[in-house]
Amino acid sequence: MIRSVHAELLRLRKWPAVWVTVGAWMALAAMFGYLFNYLAYKTGDTSFSNEGTTAQGLLADLMPANVPDVLIQGTPMFGGALMMVLGAIVAGNGYGWGTWKTVFTQGPSRTSVVLGSLAATTLAVVGVVLATLAMSFGISSAVAVSESQTIAWPSLGAVAAAVGAGFLVLEMWMLAGFLLGTVARGPALSVGLGLVWALVLENLLRGVGTLLDPIEAFTRVLPGTAAGSLVGSLIEASPGGDGTPGVLDTLSGAQATGTVVAYVLLLPLATIALIRRRDVA
Amino acid sequence: MNEMVVQTRELTKKYGDRLAVDRVSMTVRRGEVYGFLGPNGAGKTTTLRMMLGLIRATSGSADVLGQPAGKPEVIARVGALIEGPGFYPALSGRDNLRVLARYRGLDEQVVDDALARVDLVERGCDAFKSYSLGMKQRLGVASALMGEPELIVLDEPTNGLDPAGMADMRALIVDLARGGQTVLLSSHLLAEVQEICDRVGVINHGRLLRESTVSELRGATTLRVRGLPLDRALAIAMRLAGEDGVRVEGDELLLALRADRAPDVTRALVADGVDVHEVTSRERSLEEVFFEMTATARELEEV
Question: Which whole number is the average pLDDT over B283-294?
């Protein structure tokens, strides 16, 4: 399996689409986490993302102490969606290109090939989380220095919790994308269906769930609910973290973590079961 | 040592009601170049896919290198190019091979050797998507050669190559066999198979029609005689080759005799006053045999 991880890491590293996806997330995280709030703070405007917050509140959000919240606030919404795209293209493109066919005739078993690909993509997700963390600390420190604020660091526990939760949420969506790409044998359909599911359908179902109990019970086990609640359980503890799209308080932190972890374990098993059995043309 | 590199027994693949491969039992021996011959859609690629474990057989079995097809330890000893090269378009040809070398656990040096072998060193650093069809095909062959596998399976490797590229590819395949590697080559080009293969299996409509050496398949040579008057020449020909050994085609006689009987035949004809215009030995081409065989199979199916 180590061979498969090495091989897959090389091809991901050399593949521009991976960097585009990761870059899109970093750009969005920087814009929504820092740029818009900083502009609002400097100009005194308010926008949808900082409505009702005072200038002092805005500045506090931009400080290093708030990095754990900034790190994870975007993960349930566009972070998850982008990681789903990543998983779907890593798994799905190989069918159209015929590269899975090529890889399956190299020697390693299908299970080790898939585990290798999942492990390599997981390392990419870890890289994304750590790069976002570093970027957040970099930007917030620069803001603090330029605004002559004393720098207060967040507690190690808060950083660790945010890194863990951010990784779990992004990883779950990446694995979901990987499974979808495998089922659809292509990136287009899987990305489309996945995004409609994550961004539209789950929200609609949660809306319907307020009227119908069975639907509500169903929405409680959905990945989007779990991811939103996991992040919600961490952000809520700090002031000013309300109203972020996708962040929920439907489940308790423990319940949400359990559900996300269950998805992280089950999605790869389903993927492997499918790939082991299928004919690859 | 197991002399059978590939052995299939009643290998069958059904897609719904359609029989893609119908009870194919074929054998590839160590060190030979085996030509798997058939028109497009005959079931060649499907059979090869089953041999490599890419698809499951509906029934029957395939052993490769003495073990059931598709086992990782077997696949590691086989190099394959199946139905067109499948590579990552954004990566360079070289990086594509590096990825595969990592999967195989090979040193990166094999990548440069493989590129050199198919004459792609200069374009090795260009993206795969910028390659011509022939270059893509050559890269596919290069990937099949990496790590000196015992069996090399090449599915229509000359597809998309220009005449010079085709000649190079054939020379490469002959060279591989000379180095002791077994090559299983599928093709719909009869001349190609005739030129480089030791044995052939002919497949059509999913069924293996015949498996034998190229020369066996083409049959013994015949002597072609043109002599006048025809009736007298025919009588002498029948005396020498037997009544069933002579066929008349227009003003020519085809005698089922080996080429070294030509002097005897000429002498007998001249002695009997026949004007001999031409005596040549003639070999059937694989193409003739092939069309004969596929036509017969079709007639049998229609009955």
Answer: 74
| Interface contact flag, B91 A7, Cβ < 8 Å | no
CA dihedral A90, A92, A97, A103 (to 10 degrees): 60
A279·B55 Cβ contact <8 A? yes
Query: Is B103 within 8 Å of A107 when comparing Cβ atoms?
Result: yes
Among all residues of chain B, which has the CA nearest to that of A6? B102
Number of neighbouring beta carbons within 10 Å of residue B71: 13
Residue B50 contacts A where some CB pair is shorter than 8 Å? no
B38 has a pLDDT exceeding 50: yes
B chain contacts of residue A99, beta-carbon cutoff 8 Å: 86-88
Q: Which two tokens stand for residue A12?
A: 């991901």
Are the CB atoms for B30 and B3 separated by under 8 Å?
A: yes
Contact check, Cβ <8 Å, A113/B103 = yes
Per the CB < 8 A criterion, the answer to whether A244 and A73 are in contact is: yes
Q: Which two tokens stand for residue A189?
A: 């359909």
Q: Which two tokens stand for residue A204?
A: 């609609």
Pairing of strands B78-81, B4-15: unpaired
- CATH code reported for the domain at B4-217: 3.40.50.300
Beta carbons within 10 angstroms of residue B87's beta carbon: 26
Per-window interface: B 68-97 vs A, CB < 8 A: 72-73, 75-76, 78, 80, 82-92, 95
A208 vs B66: CA distance, rounded Å: 60
Residue ranges, chain A, pLDDT below 70: 45-53, 236-243
Structure tokens at B2: 């197991």
Q: For residues A9 and A123, is the Cβ–Cβ distance under 8 A?
A: yes
Task: Determine how many CB atoms are found less than 10 A away from the CB of residue A69.
Answer: 25
User: Please, are residues B129 and B89 in contact by the beta-carbon 8 Å criterion?
Assistant: yes
Residue A104, Cα to own-chain centre: how many angstroms? 29
Helical packing angle, B93-104 and B109-117, nearest 10°: 130
Neighbour tally for B117: CB within 10 Å: 17
| SS3 at position A63 | coil
| B98 and A CB contact within 8 Å | yes
**Domain B220-282, CATH:** 3.30.70.980
Query: B85 to chain A: nearest residue by CA?
Result: A98
* DSSP 3-state of A40: helix
Instruction: List CB contacts of B117: < 8 A, sequence separation 6 or more.
Output: B142, B145, B172
CB–CB contact B90 A15 (8 Å): yes
Tokens representing residue A274 in the block: 């499918």
The pTM (predicted TM-score) of the whole model is 0.86
Q: Would an 8 Å CB–CB cutoff place A3 in contact with chain B?
A: yes
B234 part of contact set with chain A, CB < 8 Å: no
**Confidence (pLDDT) at B11:** 95
Please tell me the predicted confidence (pLDDT) of residue B193. 84
